[in-house]
Amino acid sequence: TQSLTFLGIESSCDDTAAAIVRLTGEVPEILASVVAGQFELHAPYGGVVPEIAARAHAEKLDLCVEEALAVSGLGLADLDGVAVTAGPGLIGGVMSGVMCAKGIAAGTGLPLVGVNHLAGHALTPRLTDGLDYPYLLLLVSGGHCQFLIVGGPEAFTRIGGTIDDAPGEAFDKTAKILGLPQPGGPAVEAEARQGDAKRFHFPRPLLDRPGCDMSFSGLKTALVRARDAAMAEAGGLLRQDRADLCAGFQSAVADVLAEKARRAMRLYMERNPARPAIAVAGGVAANTAIRARLQGVAAEFGAEFAAPPLKLCTDNAAMIAFAGMQRFRRGERDGMDLTARPRWPL
Ligand code: KG4
Ligand code: ZN
What Å distances lie between residue 340 and 61, 93, 117, 149, 289, CA to CA? Predict the structure, then answer.
């Protein structure tokens, strides 16, 4: 069996990442996966600042690549190619990554492969769990929320998604509204563990409508209203109120995702009756409560369920190297004219 070893580079949002992945036949092995976050840099602004992100990527990319090589014990001469996220994402960051990859490719003569960030997330269940095609994928992150039928390394059919905010974005806004640190997901989840989900009322948007589309922006309005009422009553935001608000919010998101996943699964099963399988990917898939609900939906259908380990749910370069090798094996590669794309639907 032919073995391939790729360097992967990711810089589309607020994580600078480099990884070395080896693919032997169908079996991948992550030799190194380095992720440098930027939370501290953006924290004072309550959200990712594109200019700051781009500069931080430009500063850290080389270091991440060097570290990934050091961890793997390999040199550039041991590689078969360089894969890089070419979009979608914050354009300055994507450009920094593409430039870095082009520099390495030009200097070494290694082939260059541009990767769609979403394809990286979508193929992660194969990287981590060896999940066979096809499978239904729920991609839920800070910037994305969609149901995809993954039929092959480049066969993605979108069957629904958010019509406004992504759930991760909603978690981040919730944290901001309640004075919790960024990124909001882990902070809100920790609070929710101490809270009563039934105390405050949150809507379940779009559940009354058919289909797999979702909406999360209305939860913010409900949250602000409930918070203001609680604060007026107590003269400030009490710890328990904050926990109850987080629990109520998280439970609304989980209910919507679970019910829409159920519908998406029905649609998927009509097309793929012989292979029930559901996977999650993206940063929000790190949420234990949401994972458990989706696992419950999988069980209802007797479906195989795959949820990548937390480190590979959030942005990383291993998924980019892996997706890049899939393209490369099909004979696809890019030239020095590879461009960074802010928008790039799958
Ligand atoms: O996939 P990702 O690293 O970046 C992209 O958006 O592409 O996802 C980051 C998002 C953030 O919005 C973060 O708040 C959310 O994932 N997140 C979580 C949790 N951990 C991270 N959301 C809910 N619960 C979590 N435990
Ligand atoms: Zn992502």
Answer: 16, 9, 11, 26, 35
Kindly report the CATH class assigned to 132-311: alpha beta
ipTM for the predicted complex comes to 0.98
Q: Which atom of ligand 1 is nearest to the CA of 315?
A: 3
Domain ranges across the chain: 3-124+312-329, 132-311
pLDDT tens across 271-303, in order? 999 999 999 999 999 999 999 999 999 999 999
Choosing from 121, 284, 288, 291 the residue with most ligand 1 atoms within 8 A of its CB, the one to mutate for a pocket test is 284
| pTM score above 0.90 | yes
End-to-end CA distance of the chain: give it in Å, rounded: 30
